[in-house]
Design a protein that fits this description.
The complex is a heterodimer. Chain A is α+β, with helices and mostly antiparallel strands. In chain A, about 40% of the residues lie in helices and about 20% in strands. Chain A starts with a helix and ends in a 5-residue tail after the last helix. In chain A, a hairpin with a 4-residue loop joins strand 2 (about 140-145) and strand 3. In chain A, helix 3 (about 45-75) runs antiparallel to helix 4 (about 95-120). Chain B is mostly helical. Chain B has helices at about 5-15, 20-25, 30-60, 70-105, 115-140, 165-190, 205-235, 250-265, 270-285, 290-305, 320-330, 335-345, 355-380, 380-385, 390-420, 425-455, 470-480, 485-500. In chain B, helix 4 packs antiparallel against helix 5, helix 5 (about 115-140) runs antiparallel to helix 6 (about 165-190) and helix 9 packs across helix 13. In chain B, about 65% of the residues are buried. Classes of the chains: A alpha+beta, B mainly alpha. At the A-B interface, helix 3, helix 4, helix 5, strand 7 and strand 9 of A face helix 4, helix 11, helix 12, helix 13 and helix 14 of B.
């Protein structure tokens, strides 16, 4: 189903159906078993990455067909066993050499021009509507909503942690988002240009959510910036992408993109808790599954966000407001 | 390979005086013996490194952590890379250089035979140091092997214990060995060519090694400098790379990759040289575009110095830097393409037969080109933001290093084995070795492209269930691939025991001075410069 079709469906469907659609959208950015190609993601930058990837891939495929095809023909046609006689004078050809220098250069230009345009667009962090500072630690992420006085940490969810320490072979049934789930998700508004300031406090990490289209190193002593503007509400998962010690494989990233109204509601909730003297922004207890307001705060366990369970329709359906 | 001892012994006996085992193998100044030592050493290192990779692929064969600590997993990936690069690929090429360069240019030996001996004998000590933390760890002593990745990025690498010092001193020793080896090769090629072997009549293998040797001399000191700064940061309170003391962790990466990128070409240029010998031999036709091949090699070497930061597209370089490094990197595709086109055109209108060295070389051209394609894709920065540090990169560099460098090394061994030992090998057994390897190596590495594109980062010991299928396939490939060095050993052992006697010109289409010598090549060869006829010279199109 195309994304447009999904959007159309979302507009006409009733609440429970919406919940399912919403999840389908969120999961469309998840990796799939036997996946072969890069995902398209949900941002302009991820489309740039995807387009650049596909262009380069097809050019390589075309060159491959020509080169390997020529080799195949040579191996078939010019076999000694078939009585082929070597043409020992065929050792040099200025014409051929010019062709196979100039044509590749032209192909490179064909790749380089759009890649440069895309890169310039991807580097444009100007005029953000909000800023989130991301700090990598061994082995968790800290998110600070600049100017909002909201800061929290995000680390591997308890269930994944138990599974990995048990030594068993996990299954999708047991935990669909094994190692791709966290206790506190990064909640972000959709249709908003969000700037990230990315750094680290101990060793180098890299913040990577494939659906957003880039990764950026988090380096102690250096603040990198990058940006995103998520078009589609949903839950997007990623991982640390720079070796950072023993638990490098166990510091996932989960972004929950929600419409602005819901985001504002969530933010207000966070601030209220802070105001109430709650030092730890993390909710003490997971919110009831059906309660709309703090839905974003609930740990993104499978029950809260991912199982196709219409009982939790309300929070998931909230994006219809946008 | 170890059994070549007995064989050489016969020839040693014919000359000067009878050498004892210790004198022959420890004090040797003979380029052939030292070449053999390098090759045996590298074979052992390949087995050790392969065992580590099997351990890695075992852990990754199914999701979950099965009886391995993540820290030890990181040690395995780190050590696998260091052992394979510095212990496997590089010494193998130096071994081939030692054996073949004097034979191919008509020189009696390397220019500096005693330094040659020293270059080799540093290596076992360097690797004793490198592997010692790992061995001690197995006995429960010390803080374990380095686990910060082979690139040793600070600050992570500095979190290691005493293993930091072990690794750094090991790298210093390897660097000294490589630099001395490179000096020796340059001195030999520039000074000891027989009359008539002009520079532009040298075999391409000699040319690629000449250029590689210059790369080594240029970049090994840079690596030594980088790791020395790590050493002082760790133990002497400097802060070259520590932001808290005013240093910059990214500076390390720039310095490291200024070494690291030419290093990549150090590991592939000699491979280019090898297939440039083998493809013309079995196509029975001179190498197409000999001079273009030489100039392309030189261009690649030059470009290798100015593209290093393409390993660092996600560190947050300024836009201009990203664009420059993208363009410069893409440019490498041009001379590399020229080489591939020349190999294919060499086969065109040839008279091709498919003996083992040719099979390995054809596989090299195809699979290295696939590695080149993924390399070109990695150069495209907007896409690299997704590829970087994923299994796509792992697939890429294993295609260029395993099916590239390693396949060429194996091709070279099969090609020159009759010259070294005087024996042919059983072609059927060798072909079993080839087909087994070429099938399993692709099962091993091709699915890693898919894993990377789907979003699996590299250097993780465990992963989500969606990545399980391709990981299992890849691991099956690794287990199959692990058999290949043993198959090769068996083929070569069989050859020594039962192989037919090899002719001086062991292959019908073989060209070059080495084939004017009897097989096996006498312990001392070209004591007087040979009389050169152009037909004896290499495959180059020497008329242009």
């Amino acid at each position: 189903m195309s994304r447009a079709a999904k959007t159309a469906l979302a507009k006409v469907a009733a609440l429970p159906a919406l919940a399912v659609t919403q999840q389908a959208i969120a999961q469309s950015a998840d990796p799939k078993p036997w996946q072969l190609n890069m995902g398209k993601g949900v941002t302009e930058s991820s489309m740039h990455a995807y387009d650049a990837h596909m262009l380069a891939l097809w050019i390589c495929v075309a060159i491959g067909v020509i080169v390997f095809g020529a080799m195949g023909i040579a191996m078939f046609k010019f076999r000694k066993s078939k009585g082929a006689k070597p043409d020992v004078d065929f050792t040099h050809s200025t014409k051929l050499e010019v062709i196979w220098t100039v044509v590749p250069v032209a192909l490179l230009v064909v790749m380089a021009i759009p890649a440069t345009h895309k890169l310039i667009a991807m580097y444009d962090t100007s005029e953000p509507e909000m800023t989130v500072k991301i700090t990598g630690y061994q082995w968790l992420w800290e998110y600070e909503y600049i100017g909002e006085d909201v800061t929290f940490t995000s680390r591997l969810d308890r269930k994944s942690d138990e599974i990995r320490q048990s030594g068993v072979v996990p299954t999708a049934a047991e935990h669909e988002h094994y190692l791709l789930d966290v206790d506190n998700v990064l909640v972000l508004p959709t249709d908003t240009k969000i700037r990230f300031l990315i750094t680290a406090n101990d060793v180098i990490h890299a913040w990577w959510v494939p659906a957003l289209g880039w990764k950026q190193d988090a380096i102690p002593g250096i603040i990198n910036d990058n940006w995103t503007n998520i078009k589609t509400p949903g839950i997007y998962r990623g991982q640390c992408a720079e070796l950072c010690g023993k638990d490098h494989g166990f510091m996932p990233i989960v972004v929950k993109a929600v419409p602005k109204a819901e985001y504002n509601q969530w933010l207000a909730q966070q601030k209220a808790e802070r105001g109430a003297g709650e030092a730890d922004v993390q909710l003490a207890a997971p919110a009831p599954q059906g309660a709309p307001a703090p839905a974003a705060d609930a740990p993104v366990s499978d029950a809260a966000a991912d199982t196709p369970n219409t009982a939790q329709a309300a929070p998931a359906a909230a994006p219809t407001a946008g | 390979m170890a059994t070549t001892h007995a064989d050489h012994h016969d020839h040693a006996d014919h000359h000067d005086h009878k050498q004892g085992f210790v004198e022959r193998w420890f004090f040797s100044t003979n380029h052939k013996d030292i070449g053999t030592l390098y090759l045996v050493f590298s074979f052992i290192m390949f087995i050790i490194g392969a065992a580590m990779s099997v351990y890695i692929r075992f852990e990754l064969s199914v999701p979950g952590l099965q009886g391995v600590s993540p820290e030890f997993f990181n040690s395995m990936t780190t050590m696998h890379a260091l052992v394979m690069i510095f212990g496997g690929v590089m010494p193998a090429f130096v071994g081939l250089a030692n054996w073949m360069i004097p034979l191919q240019i008509g020189a009696p030996d390397m220019a500096m035979p005693r330094m040659n001996n020293w270059s080799f004998w540093i290596m076992p000590f360097a690797f004793a140091l490198l592997l010692m933390p790992l061995v001690l760890q197995l006995f429960g002593i010390g803080s374990g092997a380095p686990a910060g990745g082979w690139t040793l990025y600070p600050p992570l690498s500095l979190q290691g214990g005493s293993n930091v010092a072990f690794t750094i001193f090991a790298i210093h020793l390897m660097g000294i060995s490589s630099i001395m080896g490179a000096i020796n090769i340059i001195a030999t090629i520039l000074n000891m060519r027989a009359p008539g072997v002009d520079l532009l009549k040298m075999p391409v293998f000699v040319w690629t090694w000449l250029i590689t040797a210059f790369l080594l001399i240029a970049v090994m000191p840079v690596l030594a400098g980088a790791v020395t700064m790590l050493l002082t940061d760790k133990f002497f309170l400097t802060s070259f790379f520590d932001a808290k003391g005013g240093g910059d962790p990214v500076m390390y990466q720039h310095i490291f990759w200024f070494f690291g990128h030419p290093e990549v070409y150090i590991m592939i240029l000699p491979a280019f040289g090898i297939v440039s010998e083998i493809i013309p031999t079995f196509s029975r036709k001179p190498l197409f575009g000999y001079q273009a091949m030489v100039y392309a090699t030189a261009s690649i070497a030059f470009l290798s110095f100015i593209v290093w930061a393409h390993h660092m597209f996600t560190v947050g370089m300024p836009l201009g830097g990203e664009i420059y490094f993208m363009f410069a990197t893409m440019l490498i595709a041009v001379p590399t393409g020229v080489k591939v086109f020349n190999w294919v055109t060499t086969m065109w209108r040839g008279s091709i037969s498919f003996e083992s060295p040719m099979l390995w070389s054809i596989a090299f051209v195809i699979l290295f080109t696939i590695g080149g394609f993924s390399g070109l894709m990695l150069a495209i920065v907007p896409a690299d933001f997704q590829y970087h540090d994923t299994y796509f990169v792992v697939a890429h560099f294993h295609y260029v290093l395993v099916t590239g460098a390693l396949f060429a090394i194996i091709a070279a061994v099969y090609y020159w084995w009759p010259k070294w030992t005087g024996r042919m090998y059983n072609e059927t057994y060798a072909k079993i070795h080839f087909w087994w390897s070429v099938i399993f190596v692709n099962i091993l590495f091709f699915p890693q492209h898919f894993l990377g594109l789907a979003g699996m980062p590299r250097r993780i010991p465990d992963y989500n269930v969606v990545f399980a299928d391709w990981n299992l396939i890849s691991s099956i490939g690794a287990f199959g691939m692990f058999a290949t060095p043993f198959i090769m050993f068996a083929v070569l052992w069989h050859s020594l025991k039962y192989g037919e006697k090899a002719a001086a010109r062991s292959w019908e289409g073989a060209k070059g001075l080495e084939w004017t010598l009897p097989s096996p090549a006498p312990h001392h060869s070209f004591g007087t410069p040979p009389l050169i006829r152009d037909g004896d010279l290499a495959h180059g199109d020497i008329t242009h």
